[in-house]
TrEMBL record, chain A:
Sulphur oxidation protein SoxZ domain sequence ranges: 10-103
InterPro entries found in the cross-reference section: Ig-like_fold (IPR013783), Ig_E-set (IPR014756), SoxZ (IPR030995), SoxZ_dom (IPR014880)
A Pfam family reported for this protein in Swiss-Prot or TrEMBL: SoxZ
Signal peptide: none
Protein name as annotated: Thiosulfate oxidation carrier complex protein SoxZ
Species this chain originates from: Thermohalobaculum xanthum
Length: 109, 122
């Protein structure tokens, strides 16, 4: 597991049913590309977040595949619409098999 | 046979495109790609893409060591088929966005981004 991996998401606390809401997500992660070399000239092994998903009550909002060309601390912003109150689940998948999760509840009126 | 770098570069882009489209023709229109004209720092270049009615959008960076950047697959609860992220660009190059539409057709858009300091290698 990479050090200090911390997911952060911003979701509105409330929304109207079917309203487009903006979700901003970021996870602190080096996204080591595998292209860099250390001071001795040895390649630094690739270690990235290779997949990010956002689900709402088991239904998919966004499923993203990430490559080494995504920047350090990968940021993804997108829009969701939800029919009722519930919980978003955000999941990041690391090359080393680690899985990072966070959830965020929203009240829909 | 030794390929010229430019040929190898385009071969990798063509390969990524073919994998995504299955060899289908790629049209234009219906997809918007927003990138800065000039990126002072290639380590973190903001990119937004939008293609109403798309099921998936793939981003490619033509001039990177490997052209793949990311693919967004939109689920039933996506309010729009759009997303924003930050990417690495090794140098001045074209960024390409290709969308797979709900009817199985494909459209693309491409923007040139001038990069002052490259964002790959170290």
């Amino acid at each position: 597991m990479a050090d200090n991996v911390k997911p952060r998401v911003r979701v509105p606390k409330s929304a109207k049913a079917g309203e487009a809401i903006v979700i901003k997500t970021l996870i602190s992660h080096p996204m080591e590309s595998g292209q860099r070399k250390d001071k001795q000239g040895n390649p630094i092994p690739r270690q990235i977040i290779n997949r990010f998903t956002c689900e709402f009550e088991g239904e998919m909002v966004l499923d993203a595949t990430l490559e080494p060309a995504v920047s350090t601390n990968p940021y993804v912003e997108f829009e969701a619409k939800v029919p009722a109150s519930g919980t978003f689940k955000f999941t990041w998948y690391d090359d080393d098999g680690s899985v990072y999760e966070t959830t965020e509840a929203i009240t829909v009126s | 046979t030794v390929l010229l770098p430019a040929t190898a570069l385009h071969a990798a882009v063509d390969e990524a495109l073919a994998k995504f489209t299955g060899g289908a023709a790629v049209g234009e229109g219906g997809i918007t790609l927003s990138t800065p004209e000039i990126a002072e720092n290639g380590n973190t270049v903001p990119v937004s893409v939008s293609a109403p009615g798309a099921v998936a959008i793939m981003l490619l960076a033509e001039g990177n060591p490997s052209p793949g950047v990311c693919t967004f697959n939109f689920g039933p609860l996506a309010a729009s088929q759009s997303a924003t992220t930050r990417i690495r660009l090794a140098g001045t190059q074209r960024v390409i966005a290709v969308a797979k539409m709900a009817d199985g057709s494909f459209v693309q858009a491409a923007n040139e981004v001038k990069v002052t300091i490259g964002g790959c290698g170290g």
